[in-house]
Amino acid sequence: MKSLVVSPRRAKKTPGADEVENYLRDNPNFFQERESLLEEIRVPHACGEAVSLVEKQVDVLRATNRKLQRQLEAIVDIARENDALYLRLHRLTLALLDANSLEDALAGLQWALHECFQADVAVVRLLEPLFECPVADLFADDALKSSGAMIRLLASGKPDYGKVDPLLAGQLFGERVNEVASAALLPLQHAGLKGVLAIGSASADRFHAGMGATFLMQLSDIVAARLYSLLPECKG
User: What Gene3D superfamilies does the database record attribute to this sequence (predicted)?
Assistant: First the structure.
């Protein structure tokens, strides 16, 4: 039986300069069909030690193109993050709408903030109205009601985030205050309801002064409106 002889694979031959030149002569439309290649190659101009105006313009255009490309990639990344964020907000809204009682809504809110937004600690403290409720620590005590930070938060109607004052953090998070390195405080105000939703994170960088407030304001409005609709006096 004849043995099978396998010849060694030949290395791919790199075309020489003459071959490239002849190919380009035979294919004059080569660069028209591959315009992006012109952004990568450099064609020097014989201007001695000086840089030709054309070459300088090409360099500027390349730099501008790279900058625009980076900006476009950043915009796409932000769009993807916003899509994911609003999908999580949608899930949280559904969890609140599925609740048939205030207790169920608070439990659903806790679940959604933990599962969808990776919150380590989340608490709701109501200032008004007062009513009978089995949920422990739902109502703010007198110290929290009279807190200057709480008064300013409700007066502004805007979320506050970052590192929380230790005294205020203790009033809000209670025994779990040591788990909170940064927090977002969302005012809850809708009709006769006043309170705060405090979302705490073990990461000091999770909530910071430079972050956008639009999403947190939407979350605040949704939570306040749904909790108000489940108040005993509103359910009739």
Answer: 3.30.450.40
The answer to whether the predicted template modeling score (pTM) of the entire model surpasses 0.90 is: no
Distance CA 203, CA 3 (A): 68
Contact criterion met (CB below 8 Å) for 123 and 195 = no
The whole-angstrom distance between residue 49's C-alpha and the CA centroid of its chain comes to 50
* Angle at alpha carbon of residue 30, lines to 27 and 36, rounded to 5°: 170
Q: What is the CATH number of the domain that holds 154?
A: 3.30.450.40
Calpha distance 177→107 (Å, rounded):
20
Encoding tokens for residue 138?
């739902």
The alpha carbon of residue 36 and the mean position of all alpha carbons in its chain are separated, in whole angstroms, by: 33
Residue range(s) defining the domain that contains residue 97: 76-235
Structurally, how many domains does the chain consist of? 1
Percent of the chain with pLDDT over 70: 83
